[in-house]
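WP5 quarterly update. Target: Twitching motility protein PilT. Source organism: Sanguibacter biliveldensis. Length: 115 aa.
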Amino acid sequence: MQPWLELARQSDFVLYVSAATLAEVTDGSARDALVRRIVKAMRVVPVTAEIGYSAGGLRHVAAMTRRKARDLTVDAVVAATAVTLPPPTIVLTSDPDDLRLLLQDTQVRVEGLNP
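Structure tokens (predicted):
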């Protein structure tokens, strides 16, 4: 079991996952069974119109400060979702740089995970 998942189970932390993240980390293979087991311990947050509009704004601001072109759409949806959650909010990610850029002017903390 992932250490962060075990920590959440032993505390009163609530784990959330954006529905967009599920599209990014699953591929229809047998590996999806592990993802589905982990997600059972989380609350899946749907991508609403409000989150979509917010993600577009975050993506636009981040794109203006990036040196390299890269599609930040899914990361922006994750960031916009995190902003809607009750604080304190921590985003766990294997790509902390992009999420820190997207969340730089918010109270959301970003922590990198080892893949």
